[in-house]
Structure to design on (362 residues):
């Protein structure tokens, strides 16, 4: 455990549920942990006891990617954890594949078609998922993504070719989406199991991320907005090439700073913890440090996003990790550029570089 983790309280220590099993972490709230085939090798999903229109059952929060391993684990949960009761709805925090990938399948009752229920999510997440599932590559890959990262200094032709050929990556993890959904909005109160969970939207990591906070029990299902060990990825992607997601993310963190420090935070990755205000402070300090590194580098000479990546990420990166690293480097550059601290130029080689602000025309 690193020094920052010592500042947080992990009430369950290293106890965690095995895949296909559930662990109760708050009254009526159960933790599922499913495997992912990535460097980030797991996702936490949540089952909440519920009742809708007199029907007892369960609300599922987040789903996992479309993989045989996760389907098998869900089937075990359906058969052995639900006490013979149905799933009544599926809430998805955001559009990334590990969260929405199996939403269509779970809404339809799994392999045995046990029920047919509604997906609940925000407009921004539902629409972004539909765009990306269309298979045009979008942010995940394709010619547009390759051109975007090439403009920002990625010049390894093998990596660019992998990106060009990655047009079906999102669709392979999210093969279908429900045709209909129920919209969630900021500050909506969702009644789950007789308690009110308030929708807390967040920006920067995804278009309109939906966390859920129950003041009565002091429990926050934080999705990817507040994670205990790693910082949330905040990236500039091809679809919105002049965006400033880091500014949006840092602003969104303010919505969690008013929550009590002893709030039980249920994150999508890592272990449940207490110390939400401490963790927000850590995240702000982390980004402040990265921004300081970027300022210093750009003061010395013009920097592309590819130049910044080794400053922020000290390990070897595969193509999947590189897209996030490039996007994150660019997010830090854009915050400073759009704040007027850096200027942006495009060199004769077509690469965009950032330098200490002189002429602030953009």
């Amino acid at each position: 455990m690193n020094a920052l983790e010592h500042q947080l309280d992990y009430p369950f220590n290293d106890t965690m549920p095995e895949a296909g099993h559930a662990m109760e972490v708050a009254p009526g709230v159960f933790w599922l942990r499913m495997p992912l085939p990535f460097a980030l090798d797991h996702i936490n999903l949540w089952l909440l006891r519920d009742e809708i229109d007199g029907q007892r059952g369960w609300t599922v929060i987040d789903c996992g990617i479309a993989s045989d391993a996760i389907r098998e684990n869900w089937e075990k949960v359906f058969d052995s954890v639900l006490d013979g009761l149905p799933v009544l709805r599926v809430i998805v925090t955001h559009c990334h594949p590990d969260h929405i990938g199996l939403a269509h399948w779970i809404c339809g009752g799994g392999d045995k078609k046990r029920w047919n229920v509604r997906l609940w999510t925000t407009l921004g997440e539902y629409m972004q998922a539909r765009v990306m599932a269309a298979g045009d590559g979008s942010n995940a890959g394709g010619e547009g993504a390759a051109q975007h990262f090439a403009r920002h200094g990625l010049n390894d032709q093998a990596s660019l070719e992998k990106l060009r050929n990655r047009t079906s990556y999102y669709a392979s993890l999210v093969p279908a989406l429900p045709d209909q959904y129920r919209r969630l909005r900021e500050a909506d109160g969702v009644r789950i199991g007789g308690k009110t969970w308030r929708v807390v939207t967040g920006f920067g990591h995804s278009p309109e991320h939906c966390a859920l906070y129950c003041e009565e029990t002091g429990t926050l299902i934080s999705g990817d907005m507040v994670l205990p060990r790693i910082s949330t990825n905040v990236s500039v992607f091809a679809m919105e090439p002049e965006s400033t997601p880091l500014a949006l993310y840092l602003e969104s963190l303010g919505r969690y700073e008013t929550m009590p420090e002893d709030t039980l935070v249920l994150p999508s990755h890592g272990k449940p913890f207490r110390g939400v205000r401490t963790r927000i402070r850590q995240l702000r300090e982390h980004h402040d440090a990265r921004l300081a590194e970027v300022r210093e580098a750009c003061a010395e000479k013009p920097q592309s996003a590819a130049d910044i990546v080794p400053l922020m990420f000290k390990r070897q990166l595969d193509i999947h990790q590189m897209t996030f690293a490039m996007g994150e480097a660019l997010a830090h550059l854009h915050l400073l550029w759009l704040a007027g601290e850096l200027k942006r130029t495009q060199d004769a080689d077509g690469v965009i570089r950032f330098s200490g602000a002189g002429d602030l025309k953009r």
